[in-house]
Structure formats: C-alpha cells, structure tokens
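User: My collaborator and I are trying to settle a disagreement about how two of our proteins should look. Neither of us wants to argue from intuition anymore, so we agreed to look at predicted structures for both before our next call. Could you fold the first one, then the second, and keep them clearly separated?

Assistant: That sounds like a sensible way to settle it. I'll keep them separate. The first protein:
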Amino acid sequence: MNRWILALALSFTLLAQAQSPGGSLTVSFKDDISTLDPAIGYDWQNWSIIKAIFGGLMDYEPGTTKLVPHFAQGYSIAKDGKSYTFKLRKGIKFQNGREMVAADVKYSLERMLNPKTQSPGAGFYTGITGVADYVAGKAKEVSGIQIPDPYTVRILLDKPDASFLHKMALNFSFIVPKEAVEKAGADFGHNPVGAGAFKLKEWKLGQQVVLERNPDYFQKGLPYLDTLVFLVGQDPNVAFLKLQRGEVDILGDGIPPAKFVDVMKDPKLKQQVVVGNQLMTGYVTLNTQIKPLDNPKVRQALNLAINKERIVRLINNRAVPAVQVLPPGMPGYDPSYKGYPYDPAKAKQLLKEAGFPNGFSTVLYANNTDPNPRIAQAIQQDLAQIGVKAELKTQAQSTVIQAGGTKGQAPMIWSGGMAWIDDYPDPNDFYWPILSCASAVPGGWNWAWYCNPTLDRRAEAADAMVQPGQEAARAKAYQGIFAEVMKDAPWIPIFHEKRYLMHSPKVGGSDAILVDPIHTPVNYAYLYVKR
C-alpha cells in the first residue's frame, strides 16, 4: 500500500526566524566561479550558490540531514520500492515568470542524463528504468520518467534504491526551464534561470557575481537578504584583512592556514568563527591488487602503524581521528567500533606473520598542496617505524586522481584534498562509488581496487529497504557492511575534518545554517543582516 509523505506546514519555516528582511552580504573566493548550471557544477565553491538559485523535488530541513519535499508537495513509494510518484506544488514560478510543471522535471533529468551535457552527476541516476537505452541513443526519452498529468511525476527504477530520495535533492536533479536553456545554449551556466530563493543580477567574470532576492520564491519571507555578492579573485590573506575592515562578510575559502592559530587565540576573532562537523573521511587507500598489499594481514598491519592523533595535531586539531569508513552523524556509523589502535608492535607482528619480518618497499601518492605533503611525510615516518619504506610522490591533484584510477599504478594514496565528502547523507554514498566492485574500474574512485561480491549483495539488500520505518534496520545493515570492510582493511581511515567558517559580526544565522551539512559552505537563503 502506498504511503503519502506530505510536507507538514513547511518545516523549513521553523528556522525562518522573524528577522528584518533586507541588506546585503559579501562572500570572498580566490577562484572564479566556473558554472552555475546545476547539471554540471560539482565543486564546493558553486555547490551552495547553485542551491540558492535552483531547487529540486526534495531538499533538507535547514541545518539538518532530514529529507523533506521541496518543489514537490509530497511523494509516495510503491510497495516494491521501484516506483516513486511526486506531486508538484502548484504556482511555483521560474525566475522568467513561467509556472513550473511536471514536463520541466522530465526535461531537466533527461538533459542531465544526455551524454552531450557531460554531467558529472549522471551516474547517480543510472538506476532509473530506460536510462541505458537513452544514453546509448536507442531511445529519444527515458521511459522510466513519466508525467501522468501536469503536476505529477512518476519515476520507475530497475531495482529498489533507498537513497533515491536523496538523489532527488542533489543539485544534478534540479529543475530548469527548457526555453531558458535553449536561449542561452552552452552559456546557460553563466545565465542561470531557476526557481530558487535568489536569482542572478550581475556576473562580471573575474570580479564578482551578484544575486538578488527572488520575489516569487514560494517560501514566503525567504530569503532575508536583498542581495548576495560573491567577490572572486581574492587572495585568502587579503580577504581576511578585508573581513576585519568590514569589506567582506564570509571567507569562502576558509581561514588562511597561517592565520588560523592567531584567530583561535584571539577572543574577539574566535567569536566570529563557527565550527561544525562534516560528513567526510580522509583516508589512505591500499591497493588490494598490488603485492604485498593484496595480503589482508599486511593491510591490517599498516592500519595499526599510523599515529592519527599526531596527524590531527599537524592540522591544528581541525579534525577528529577516524576509526572507520563512515563519519560521525552518518546513518550506519558505529560509535562503539574501535577500529585499529595505534600499535606499532602489533603491526610488526602481523607483518612477520604475513611473511615480511623486515618490512617492504612501496609508494605513497599525495596531493602537493599544503598540508597534504606534511601529512604524507608523517604517514611515511610511521610506516618506517615498522620497516615499511614508502617513497613519496607528491603531485598535482589531477595527476594523483589519474594514478588512483589506473589499475596497478598507485599502491597507496593519501586522499587529502580529495577526501570523500558525502554527495548526500546516506551510507551507500560511502560504499558504491568508492568501495564496490562496480567502482573498481579505470577512471573510478575506488583507488583501493577493492571488490567483495558478498558485500555488494548485502548493500543491494540494504538499499531495498525503502519503506518508511525501515531506516534503523537499514542503518544497522550498513553498519555490518562497513565492519566487514574494515576487517578486509582496504583503507586506513585517518580523520574526519571539521568545518571552520569565519564571518563578520553583522552576519546573522544559526550555527547550523552557517555550517549547514548539505549547503556547503553556507545555506544562503537563511542568512540575514544583524540590525
């Protein structure tokens, strides 16, 4: 029996405090904004700006990971978990004045899935029925995206996927008007038209992007700000000085590393810093297809050899040591799991049992941007204590990514700079893209080249738990899956990094909004100017 999930009085409004509307805030960035096309943008800088301009069928309660309907009024899930039906709100307007209808949802998803769009998010949606034929050019539409009437969208899946609603809250699924895309052509990313809280007012390449309040936004009273200015080309150290002078309100690139200790020691400046947890894990991959790392005992020994507390101190304690794949706050995280303690003596014993009493030589790749070389050196030193000689290869991020995705090339990789941050707050996002058999492919992100078919089947079974009320059982299932992963030890989890956001005294908004776990780095729709 289908069960309808409705948005009860728009729980978003619980956080929409009665603040005085108006005013402007300025955010600084070192690099220019690449694109504001939701089908294409996929970096931490444009992620939350796109969320401010566009929206999708689903979203999250501000400052939380709780899914709620957004442009959808509600949804239902078929009993077999392979059909989702969404009812659109009536009266939602695009920023060109036209009402949003179901055909826009179908168009937006098919545009994103079209290989010509080259969307980096298309892989999240391959489970929709008919996508394979559409991508291969065998069909002109995706048969599993249906529009029974102007305000209803039905999406069919090849198999149940409990994370599917999260995917409908990802930027890649955000809804765009066909006529605006066709008018702008390849330049839609610089001429965005959505139905979100803000709309584009001005874009001066290399200088600034200015957003203004969308008066037709369906959540009355939001956003609070009249304008939102993104200054680009700002050296982080210069931006820090501008913040102190009141010329910048949010440091988009974070606190400059050279200033971090001074800021946190200064009682006044520290009050302008908000700290929050990220759903992320920084880790070392151990290539399970390269000797001697193909031996589980060797991989377990390397896990025991790393002093994670020391590494956390290297980054001024801006993280907590990791003992498992999942970060705290993610469903399936096991707070009772202790992992591999720092125990060099036991590590040596395991190496001896594995047939390497004198250790061995290997290669550790790392991103060459600070602090990653220093972290890699600390790992190298710890490994040397158990007789493992790791040659360091610190290279550009793109080169490291290429090495990781090339079978047999990189024995070990420190993931810093590319650590896994959730695409959506569901445990399967920490399994399928980076630890499954399907992701152990050239160009993939499973740099451990780890494949356990039994765990793949268990993950599929967990993802079939789609009905309301099954969340706890599914989290427990993933808890067991990741416990088995840690026995096989294809990773050395190192730390879960925290987020530090520095702002001017005039920025208003709760800590949960300023370090929102979904709207990285900030949930702009809920910011306001303190009067």
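The second protein, kept apart from the first:
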Amino acid sequence: MHNKSSYHLVTGILQGGLPLLFACGALAQPSLTGQIGYINMPSARVGDDGTFSFGYGYDKPYGILWTSITALPWLEVSGRYTSISGIAGFSDQQYGGAYGRYKDKTIDLKFKLWDESKWLPGISLGATDIQGTRLWKGTYLVASKNMLPNLEASLGYGKDRIQGAFGGVRFTPQALPNWSLIAEYDANNYRTDPFSSQTAAAQREKGPAVGLEYQWGWLGLQIARQKTHSSINARIDIPLNWKEFVPKIQEPPYFTGESDLPARPSLTEWRRSPDSAKALATALGKQDFKNIRISMQKDSLVMELGNSRISNVGRTVGRAVRTALYFAPLETREIRVVYTELEQPIATYNFYDLPILNDYLLGKIDRDRFLQTVSIKSGRDEEIKPLDSQTLALTLREGIDVNLLTNREGDLIQVTSDDTEDNRFHLAPKMGFYFNDPSGAFHYDIMAEANYKRRLAKGLYLDSALNVDLYNTITAVKQPSNSLLPHVRSDIADYKRVKAPKLNRLLLNQYMTLSPNTYARVSAGLYEEMFRGVGGQVLYYPNIKNWAVDLNVDALQQRDVNGWFGKRDYQTISALASLHYQLPMGVTATLRAGRFLAKDDGVRMELKRRFRSGIEAGFWYTKTNGNDITSPGTPSKPYSDKGLFLTIPINSLLTFDTKTVGDFSLSPWTRDVGQMVMTPGDLYEILSNPKRDIDSYDGLGNFAERADEQALPAVTPPLPSYHPWPTIKLRLEDSGNHWLEMDDKTAALAAASVVSLAAIGLDKPVNRAFDNHQDNRAVKEWGKWGKNLPIASIALSGAAFALGDERLSNTGLIALESSVAAVAGSSVLKLAANRARPSSSDSPWRKQTAGESRLQSSFTSNHSAVLFASVTPFAKEYDQPWLYGAAALGSVGRIASRDHWLSDITVGGLLGYAMGSWLWQSQRDDSRYRSKLIATPQQVGVQIDVPIR
C-alpha cells in the first residue's frame, strides 16, 4: 500500500508539477542583490505579482544568499545575507570563532511608480538596506523601456552605494527565448563598502559589465564578466499566485453510495431507531468529518460538523449534504448544515429544495438556479436547536496508521491515530533551524514530537506535546545573554540544550461561542517550552465585515530548562488588544497594543498578503518602551523587534487536500523586546480562513466539485486586483471643481490674515507667560497632551474610515486626506520661513542655525494643522462644534511644551481648518465614489455608482 502511495505521489509531481514548471513563461531576471535588474544594477521592472524567488550569487569578495518577493504588483521586497570572504565575523576568536566569515543582513525595497506605456518608460524608486547596520544603504530612481519586442533598456541615477548615473540593456533573441545577453554600466562605489581596504572590493571601479542568462521554467542562471573578475547568480522562481503546484490525483472521491446501501427510511422509522442516523454518521466519519451531530427537527435534517482535512468550507459542506441525501428520511423537506471549528459554529447552510439540490449535484441545472434555493447565515441559525453532543460518537479507529510521504500533515513519516470526536495522536520527526549566533552562523535541532489531543467535553480540549531531542548543534552556543531586559527569549539556547524528553505543552482549552459573532477561549497549563499560565481570549468577528477585534490576557510563569513542572522566578501578565483589517489584494493588516512578555508596553504592526495558492507572506515590526541596547541596538536607538514570515499550506505541495500549514519566520531568536507567548488556539487564526471562504462570492466554493464549474470565481478566485485610481481621480476632480466654484476665498483669506497678524503680535507675551510656568505640572501635562492628541485624532479618523458605516467611513477618509494636505501645506511654509523654535531669550522670528533641517522649522505647527484638519470634517458632518475647542486646547499644548509660538499654531490651525472644510464640502456626497460587492444567492458582482452630471 505504501509503495503504491509513494508511486502516486512521485508520478503526480512528474506528470502534473514538472510540465507545469517547465511551461512557465520567462520571468523578469533578478540581479545579484535579488532585485529585478541586470548584474549589479537594478531596472524599473518588478517581478510578476506574487513571484517568490531565492538564489545564491558570488561576486568577489561577496557571497550573497538572497530572496525576493513581489508582495504587491508595484512593490518588490528583497532580503540578502552577504558574507565577505577574508573577513572574520568576530575579532575575538574565543567569542565568535565558529561564526566564520563576516555576514550582514539587508532588506531592500523597490516601488514601481509608473507602468510602461507605448511612449513612456516604466519608472521605479528603490531603497537599499533600509534597516539594521545600513552598511549598503542607498536610493535610486530608474526608468526602463522595451525598445523592441526583445530589447530592454534602463537608465537611472543613484545616491550613496549606487553613485551617479547607471544603466543596462537585455537582449533576448526570438529564436532562443530562454537565452539573454545583458550589459550594464555598474555605478556602485565599492571603495566605500565595509572592509573594502582589506578585500578585493578596493580594486573594483565603476564601469561596464556583460553577461549571459539562461532560464528554464522556474530555474535561472546568470554568468557575467566584470572588469576585474567574473560573477555567477543562480535562482529559483515560484509563482505564489498559482492555485496549486501539484495536481490532486490522490484526492478521495466524494460519497456516491454503495451496492449494499440500505433504502432511505421513513421519518417514523428514523425516529424509532438510531441506526439510520448512525449509518449517516459512519459514512461522514470515513470522510474525515469530526464532531458529527445529527438530528431531525420536524421535517428538517440538521447536521453539525467540521472536517479535519478538507481546506475549503464550501467543498466540505457539499460533501456532507451529498452524503446526507443517501440517508435522509423520505419526508425530509430541507437540509441544514452548521459548519464548525472546534465545535464553534461558523455558519449555517440551509438547502430548501432537495430535488434542486440533487439535480445540481448531478450536473442537471446550473449554479444560478441552485443559488435561489440556498441561504447562508453567520454562526448558528437561531431556528436550529443545539444538538446533543453525546450522541453518534464513534470509537477510536482500529490500529495505528504509519504513513510514508503521503500523510496529510506533509511530514516525511508519521504515526497517527484519530477518531470522529477529534481525539488524535500524532508522532513525527521535526527539525528547527537557527541562524546568526556568534558561536556559529547556522544551528539545527532534530527531534521527535508526539502530539496528543483529547476532547473532554463540548468545546473543551486537552492539547499536549512531548519532544525527544535526537540531535542538535545548539549545544555549541556558549555565550550567555547580555540582555538587560527580563530574559523571556534570550535564554532559548539553554532550553534547547537539554536533550532529555520534555513536555513542551500540556494545555486545557475551553472554546465558547458567546453570540453569533463573538467567540471566546479560556486556557490553562503549559503553554509552550518556556512559559506556563492561565488566560483567555475574546474575539468579535462581525458578519460580512472586513475587520475583527480581539483581546488576549495571560498570567504567565516562566518554566525551567528541564521541560517538566519546574519554574523560574519570573512572572508577568501579558495583555494585548488586536485589530485585524482585511485590505484589497488579499492583504491583512493587524495592529496589536498592550503589554508584551518582558513587561514592555507598546504596539506591534503586522502586514501580510495571501496569494492565490494560499501562501501568505508578511512582516512585523514592534515598538515598545523596552530598551534593548544589545547590538545593533544602542542607548540612543534601542533595538525594535522585527521579522519576516511565510505561511505555506501543505496542500499546495501534495497530491491531496489538507488543512495543515507550515510556518516559517526570519527574525532574531535571542531577543527579549516585543515578544509574545505562543498560545495554541488563537481564535483569529482558527476562524479567519473559514470566514474568508464563507464571505467569498456566493459562499459555496467548490461545493459540487463539478468539472464544468472549475473556472467560476467562487471555485477558483481570480488573481487579486485593485485599482483605486478611478476613485482617487474622481475625488481630485470634485475637489478641484469645488475650489474653482468657491466665491468666498478672498474674504476667508482676509479674515485669516487678520487673525494671523494678531497672533504674531501676541507671540512674545504668550511665550513669556508659558515660560514663567514651565515647571508647573499642569502645564507639562498640557504639553504632553498637545503632542499626543494629533496622533490620536489620526488613529480615530483611520478607525472611522476602516470600521464605520458608509457615512462615517467617508468622513474618516476626508479627515485623513485633509491631514495629509495640511501637512503638505505646512511643510511648504516651514521650508520658506525656516523659523527657530521658541526659548526664553529668542526673538520670535530668528532663523534656525545652519545645518538644521528646514522641515523642523517652527512655522507652522504640523500638530495644529493635523488636529484642525482631522476634526473639521467630523464637526461639520455631525454638527459637533465642540471638536474645534478640543483641537484648540491640543494646539495650545504645543506652546505649553515650548515647541511653538502662538502664530505657529494659529496659522497651522487655520490651514488645517481650510483643508478640512474644503475637502468635506467637495467630497461629502460619497455616492459618487461608492462601489460594493454584491454576493447573494441570486447574484454575484460589483456595483459602482457614478452619477453622470
């Protein structure tokens, strides 16, 4: 059996995956930095949307391991790990002797500003080494144009590492489409590179370089000759926007009945004997359905269930109702399916016409006709009574399954046993990788992990994990942590060094549904390898909305390194509130705020994009008051936690469907700032994918698995696209037209001038009054309020735009637009005035000293401009004039903190008010810009309302 399964896996990849790979069209070519370009120089191109590339290049004296992803159609993000031959990583051989060559991490960005047209080139702006040591920092602007169908040319200008003008050309012969000749003018200033005087970099000068490229499907190779040496660059490209990489040739067929299938019972027979319900439950259990509850409520067959394997909710429900049609009583009028995750109801599917349902599954009628007999509601339909959780439980499957290569978790080999009540045992090898420690640039850990999950009651689960270390190189890590924060993560090597069996998790999770849109979890036990505790989470996930909020609170105790029930002295309470917001193009933004693991308070921003294949890529950045001065952090600029992550659904790589995902992240593994406890059972992670399926198009997904429907958007979602420019253009046109139509501009400008002159006359006395009370506590607090209130107003405007109804959302957007316009106008005045900040001895109009940035000029106040710009649309739309008073008090706080003169905040406030008032009057009628997705059982489409006038 196993040999046959392995055969199917290999042949599936060979027959489906490899031809797909080699049929892939040529992609844009990365340079040695990972950015699309030539040899060392970039072009204005970015890769096809969703292209993920990684490769290795050698360009004496640099070895470059790089990766790149086209995160959005106009944004390319590249990361590289550059080693310098001949330079030791650490001068102290006792401390970092095993680290090898000097290595440095770099993140680069490229923004496509303008697409190429018939006459104009494409233009991109790039920034290299945007964080960390910034040894390779630089910026550039580059334009690229296809001069002929097979000839591309680029011209650009750079600053810092790329110094001055550069360019490149690529010629791809029509007769040899896989081959390209390239040439470039390399403008890198290698002599300013780190350690250039000690390496071959000092011998390199600006000048021409030529190369030859070959591409075969996803694989590419470049060989180039530069003035003093040769270079090589090899890569693999993976298109993340492909739906799947391997065909599902081993997917079990849906239920079609058996030759000995008993006749459907009458309703009386069904109620008299439980055998019919048990037969249906058995048939469902064989298809990986879990927590199966079945009941006849009047003439409706109600099923409550989830599925441990099938990744699409619509397909899961389709298989359930298809099976139910073979067993339902003859008098059944409708079938209702409550889809659950961990017994929490996500949605209720109602099928009102069983003959139509049967005809649709048999391919006799189209989807539009079928949709007229279906309804989908969030959570549990209130008409459905809760089902008995004690009935229809099946016993543990007989025997133990040993799977090689073909298991549904994607492990190489595993031992599993499970049942329909979601009780499960799983044993498989695991491997962890750790980079960039002074004791060695690369460490790994190989272990065997046994997981046992047990359902104890409705929504109550025991979750455990026992790990046995088989082999690791982490024992080579000798350097103790020198972090000044509580060692919540920086001692991880001490935990990994222990090879004895360890109980990494022993946790009770109680999942609850508080309302159709509110879910909760209570947890207690051993959370993870380093912490134990008790806590919980509450999630509000509204129906057919693109946002959700949750609160996570945990009281935690640090565990000792032995991995059982011992403890360390450290205790803390972690509390984080999170807002998750789904943006266009499959992008989800998450903002977390609160107390982190090391008792540091702050915020964490996460941004990720989900591609058509289901793969998610993103990054996070955390800013807290925890002062991590461990290098590269310094007392003046503490380190902030940051990293990249990739989530890969294993089903995209296997010949059958599965829900299992693989998580990968790249971040420092010995940092304490901005850390979070690992809590198995995060509600948003559990619910977001099924919610996304239910809210997409008609909510049925691949319901019937019909061959003639695989091109439908609900089955195979189209590549994500988002074009905001038409709406932006319309708003700009309306604002410009309204400005021309305003007939009171002269009077308003005259009144503003009078008020401004009066404020200028009061600059000295007002400044003197606050100077005399600068030690007053109330004045100090006023200054803090004035500094923070504009930030709060922007945040509230953004929340109104993201979370409000149509009226509130439009007002919030106008407030944000007004704030941007006000800051732009204020910046122009700052550049012109170059006014010095106030002090006790300054004259009001003294110029700033030489060397100070004009954008830091005192005149005008950006804070005041933002405050009035953001509150004005709300004050006018909702008739709330008191908001102006709050803005005025906040603006005066900038005088209290001695950051501005009275005339600064006066002119800034007038500017903000003018922008807010103008844009509100221009854009308050949001019906001109409104577009919405229509997804009902009767129709699917996009409606755009643009009145013609």
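Some points you might bring to the call about the second protein. The radius of gyration is 32 Å. The first helix runs from residue 2 to 22.
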